[in-house]
Design a protein that fits this description.
phospholipid metabolism; PIP_synthase_PgsA1; 199 residues
């Protein structure tokens, strides 16, 4: 779904990418700074219940996930290591977002939602690993209802609106995300099974 929006977002980020390219800034630097910003926003604001502000900060730095790619294309120095670093630090960012929510849920006595957020974190990691492992084996695994972009949009929108006082939105968002992540994990396992097991 969000892949359709990527070209438009890339056009918006292109002027900033050109400015950074003129200064010779490495895409890997943008990747690291983006992850640090996401982690700081999630762990600095979410545990204190500042869900809206945390979501705004995280969203700002999540854009670095697109900006580093734009910059790499402009500089013509995209690399295998850059792709590896980007994917690896994506997991760090995801862990920070859900960890921040889990800490807040635990501090406010919402143990059930803490468990749901933990499930979302684990299921999301399984979804990402399934694709990485399949592609490492030379298979395709570009399927699924809830890829990383969709998962981030759901949790950030739900947390942000929850921080603005919209009732039940964060709980509903997390439960839906848990179901979608589990379904996506199964989708990918089945997809790889059909490629590897003769019918």
């Amino acid at each position: 779904m969000l892949k359709l929006l990527r070209p438009a977002v890339t056009r918006v980020l292109s002027p900033l990418g050109r400015a950074l390219a003129r200064r010779g800034i490495s895409p890997n630097v943008i990747t690291v700074l983006g992850t640090l910003g996401v982690a700081a926003g999630a762990l600095g604001f979410y545990p204190r219940g500042q869900l809206f502000l945390g979501s705004v900060v995280i969203t700002f730095f999540v854009l670095a996930d697109l900006l580093d790619g734009v910059l790499a294309r402009m500089l013509g120095n995209g690399s295998v290591f850059g792709a590896f670093l980007d994917s690896t630090l994506d997991r760090v960012g995801d862990a920070a977002v859900f960890s921040g929510l889990i800490l807040w849920f635990m501090s406010t006595g919402q143990a059930v939602l803490a468990c749901v957020a933990l499930f979302c974190l684990v299921a999301g990691a399984v979804v990402s690993y399934a694709k990485a492992r399949a592609e490492g084996l030379g298979l395709t695994c570009d399927v699924g209802l809830a890829e990383r972009s969709e998962r981030l949009v759901v949790v950030l929108v739900a947390a942000g609106l929850g921080g603005l006082g919209v009732p039940y939105i964060l709980a509903v968002g997390l439960w839906l995300l848990a179901a979608a992540s589990a379904f996506t994990a199964v989708q990918r396992i089945v997809h790889v099974y059909r490629q590897t097991v003769p019918t």
